[in-house]
What does this fold into?
Amino acid sequence: MGHMHHFSAGWISPVLAYAMACVGSALGLRCTVRALTAEGRSRRNWLLTASVAIGSGIWTMHFIAMLGFGVTGSPIRYDVPLTVVSLLVAVLVVGAGVFTVGYSPARLRSLLLGGLGTGLGVAAMHYLGMSALRLHGQVGYDPGLVALSVGIAVAAATAALWAALRVRGATGAAIASLVMGLAVSSMHYTGMAAVRLELTPSRAPLPGATAMEFIFPLAVALGSFLFLTVAFVALSPTARERAESASADSLREAELPTSA
It folds into this structure.
């Protein structure tokens, strides 16, 4: 059995990974809340942005955490197509959850379905991402810990969606994104604890790319996209804010004395 270490890059990879998960969640949940006040195409676009934000936030978190993952006795490579597929799956499955909530927010059933979808999206992304691992040996899993990790993902995603929809204002959004970030991180490390490695030492070259060659640039690109979108979304006024400033302007005009 190979000895695994999850923090070979020190504490920086888990901390950075958690921060990315929170940023992606904060943006995604904010967009989901925005979608509820929008109509038609605008609503759909907010929900699409939410899906991409949460999906890519989860994915970036996973692979930044994986930068700290090493195995004594074997190098590690990643299958590039599978890694990209895991990103798309995260966005699609999270999207299914987010759209469920976006189109019928009031019903408990849609919140539970949305949480289930989003949580399964996190889990599917994690295990697909793990299946992209290439090393000298076999990767197996402890089924109990796998089930626990999926349970954590679903429960926390549901809690985060609930908080985002129910708790008004910036506090609600912040709490929800921290919960979601914690969910994704704890799901990740629970999933990693489930890994059982059987190494077969070999000199043969491994297929795939190293984390630094491929994953790091992609994570940086997605990270930059998330931060730019966060700034844009945070600064763009909601429909209600626009309406309020318009009515304030018309009041101010009504109050101005007409100069003779």
Notes: Strands lie at 3-5, 70-72, 77-78, 133-134, 137-141, 195-199.
